[in-house]
Amino acid sequence: MYGMGMVKGLLVTLKNLTKRPFTVQYPEERLKQHPRFRGEEFVWYEERCTGCASCAKFCPLGIIKIVTSPSETAPAQGDKYRLEVFDIEIARCMFCGLCVEACPYDALFMGSGFEQSQYSRKEMVIGIDQLRQADKHPSTFFRPQLESAGYDPHQGQPLHWKDVGRESWRWHLQEKAGMRLEPAPGSGNGDSIEAVDDLNSPDLDGTAADAGAPEQTQ
Amino acid sequence: MSCVMSPDNVLYGTPVYRFVYELVGTVLPCWISYVAAGLVIMFILVNAVLMGAAVFVFAERRLIGRFHNRIGPNRWGPFGTFQPFADVLKLIFKEDITPAAADKIVFLAAPIAMLAPAILMLAVVPFAKNTALADLNVGILYILAVTSLSSVAILMAGWSSNNRYAMFGAARGVAVLISYEVPVVLCLLGVVMVAGSMSLADVVEAQAIPFLLVQPLALFVFLAGVSAELNRTPFDVAEAESELVAGYHTEYSGVKFALIQAAEFGGVVTASMVVVTLFLGGWAGPLADYLGWFWFLLKVGAVAFIFIWVRATYPRLRIDQLMAFAWKFLLPLSIINLFATALEVFFLRDSQGVLAINDLWIMTGINLALGAGCIALFGSMIREKIKPVTWQPAAGTASLTVGEVT
């Protein structure tokens, strides 16, 4: 009978009326995010960073700006460079993750969040201070060691820099690779980033640190 | 000084009106109490339309949301119930723009003229037993006359805007309104014949069996025609937002736009009330003397739900499909219904011209069969004649067929 299609249409909408709506009430409810989500709150572990600027070189958009100066404290410990500027212009970032893949020492991680909207383009640049102070909730993108450990950035504590590497802590102790192993003078805590401020102290020069290094690492 | 209303006054049957009239009449002259009672009733009716429109807007947005597997507005108030008030507040505080080249007076009058029919229609609708403002003995004629006013209002809005989209929308709207007026009037004649009266109260009393069953064809034609006259979605060519920015209310903003929206949605509520009164037995139901208003509201809600359901389901018709639907489908159906009803009433009525309940059951059977048959027959006859064109290769390129890549 002609017109049955219209009746069928009515029944289709009636069936949809009885279904639960798909809507997720966003600020109150959230969809579960995968731990490998590539968010914009980049996580940077300064202790692991050598200032090699691999991330900046591999960035296809060239939005990472790194300025380093020679570290005069402990070149033998792998602390070749001191980071002065680490700007990520997040407004142009396409979240390809190549910077994270390029990092040889697991110092840079994708973030886990996505709610960093700002009112101007100038505010869309993540500076070095922001990277230092941010909570360390790294995404497990390109970091299988985190994923196999079952880490979920949306739950649990911020990760310590000693825990995020793909190699064991003992390996780092032996290879002296990628990090400042010794606390700087005047600082009791080797892994605190405040130690960086004291690196220019005049009593330390390269030779002294070079000579002292083998004993300290044994 | 006391005023007593004469029983032959048309407003005598309205308890609220008589109460106010006699209350005010004890202290003030009769003509003042006449005006005061009228103002009270007007206040009630205008607010009924506006509140009905507000409730309907909320229900429609929520229900259409659920039809589309969304939630609908739910941020403002419990379950979003304050949404229509938020909308109205927003519209009140927006700038009220009148185009420089508009006809200012007509531009201002059009929204008011648009809202007036919806309010005027309520004057004769019996909400419960003896609760119509005026039980006119030509109630149905009055409703038809008043609803026709909206075509004038649409033309006023479209013409005074000095905007070609508005003018197109108004022309389409008036064409639709005039076309659909014919089947609507003809199908109501069947109802009038069965009820034996044009008074809405008498029509309600006459529905020992709801006319939903006695006049199924008339109900179908009336629902389709009314939803076209209200510019509801399957028939909303007059304000088709994908073709004519917003149709005849393109240039309206602010309070005037709020009035137009209130007129549209209030029109749906009053049309539902008319459908309930004419076809669903009005306030009839268990304990109708006390709960008549409840049954009335319940049925109005059901009819409004059908309007929302249809809107949520169908896409918009083209203007030629719309006209074909009116002239080739609804008009023959209403004429057949009129003819069949006339014959049935002629042969079944007794010597006083009254139809017994058994006669109504006989008519129910005949009309249901007739309705199904007619809808099938005429539906297949207005089936679209244009077949999709199959592409024919030109003479020189006979080796090519559609879809082949060379």
Molecular structure report:
The complex is a heterodimer of chains A (218) and B (406). With 218 residues, chain A is an alpha+beta fold. Helices cover 25% and strands 13% of the residues of chain A. Chain A is built from 7 helices and 5 strands. Chain A has helices at 4-17, 54-58, 98-102, 128-133, 144-148, 169-175, 206-217; strands spanning 39-44, 64-70, 81-89, 108-111, 125-126. The longest helix of chain A is centred in the N-terminal third of the chain and has 14 residues, at 4-17. The termini of chain A are far apart. The model of chain A is unreliable at 183-218 (pLDDT under 50). Chain B has 13 helices and no strands. Chain B starts with 14 loop residues before the first helix and ends in a 25-residue tail after the last helix. The model of chain B has no long low-confidence stretch (mean pLDDT 83). The chains are: A alpha+beta (218), B mainly alpha (406). At the A-B interface, helix 1 of A face helix 2, helix 11 and helix 13 of B.
Low-confidence stretches of chain B: none
> What's the shape of chain B?
globular
Q: What structural category arises from helix and sheet content of chain A?
A: alpha+beta
Q: What amount of the residues of chain A lies in strands?
A: 5-15%
What coarse outline of chain A follows from CA principal-axis ratios? elongated
